Amino acid sequence: MILFILGHMVICIIVAVLLKLDIVKTREHLMPFVILVPYVGALLLLVEQWLQKRKIYSTRETGYEKLEVDDIRFKKIVLPVSEENSDVIPLEEAMEMNGSETRRSLIMDILRGKPEDYVSVLESASLSSDTELSHYATTSMIAIQTNYESKLGELEVRMKEIRGLDDIAPAKEVDIDEFEKSVNEKENTVELVTKNVDMPSKGYIKLLDEYITIIDKYMASGLISGAIYEIYQEKFDDALVEMLGYIKDNKRYWLMFVTNRIEAGRLKSMDKLLELIRSSWPDDEKCYMAYMAYAHKTSNDELAREIIETVEEKDIYLSKAGKAWYNFWKGEYENPF
């Protein structure tokens, strides 16, 4: 009996040392069995370690409802600094590494942060042959989509309630003539208009702005396509028409509005509207990007070349994205047809 107890104590000490040295990793709830159930507990621990080595045992399963889904394009991974390599690499490149443990670690880092910023990476990971990695990625994408739709649904209900209480009748279409008048008069931007509809409260305007921002991010996320995308495209258009009924002259909303309509192929009065936008904000690269999208949509090569020439002549400041856009279209139209 004494030898039996001594043998069990030796096993417990060995397990404790292995855990301390991080050689053995196990669940916390398995340790009481190792300590309180002589030999059988240790045998369970051995079986667990064998299953881990065979990679058919998972220490944790994450449900999408527990993920935090609350503007970054690349996540940087710190590496040892040396003469041979730089100190960071893009997440997209790191995910191409062969080590499954590394990929799983990166995915978990994404899930703990802002997974909605890495939809393209998650989509790629969801197609992985690594079933655990694919599960985490797919679950996260479901969580992101659920979160977007939940937020948008809540905002729609709240705005509908306020419209009912305040008897608000949103505009059916944007008033281009009113916009042209504001451009000609050179009035201040973000001026409120009360001619066509009753002006709602600032709280309602804030809700509408939040709705526009979220639906814009949702559409740009890559999570939706086809008929579902078209439905949200219509919702986005309706929200922007309503906002532009209250706001007289706001670059952000106008650029969203024309970009969405050009993509949808709704081009009525678009040439006049784009010219007004360019006249109102002649130094903003996004105005020329929207104009180029229109030229491409209508297959107007002459207009496209004119836009490139205008950007060059006026020396429009271009961001990194703007330079990439300019170089692409410059390559398309640099030679006469």
Topology (SSEs and partners):
Layout lengths: L1 H19 L10 H6 L3 H14 L37 H4 L5 H13 L6 H8 L4 H36 L9 H10 L16 H19 L5 H21 L4 H14 L5 H11 L4 H13 L3 H13 L6 H14 L4
Characterization of this structure:
- This protein has 337 residues and is mainly alpha-helical.
- Helix content is 64%, strand content 0%.
- It has helices spanning 2-20, 31-36, 40-53, 91-94, 100-112, 119-126, 131-166, 176-185, 202-220, 226-246, 251-264, 270-280, 285-297, 301-313, 320-333.
- α11 (251-264) packs parallel to α13 (285-297).
Give a short summary of the structure.
By secondary structure, the protein is mainly α. The chain has helices at 2-20, 31-36, 40-53, 91-94, 100-112, 119-126, 131-166, 176-185, 202-220, 226-246, 251-264, 270-280, 285-297, 301-313, 320-333. The N and C termini lie far apart (98 Å).
Give the helix proportion (percent range).
55-70%
Shape descriptor: elongated
- Whole-number radius of gyration? 29 Å
Low-pLDDT parts are: 56-95, 188-197
Q: Helix/strand-derived class?
A: mainly alpha
Q: What percent strand?
A: under 5%
Helix tally equals: 15
Rounded average pLDDT? 76
Topology order in helix (H) and strand (E) letters: HHHHHHHHHHHHHHH
Task: Please describe the biggest sheet, giving its number of strands, its sense, and whether it closes into a barrel.
Answer: none
* Distance between the first and last residues' Cα: 98 Å
How many beta-strand runs?
0
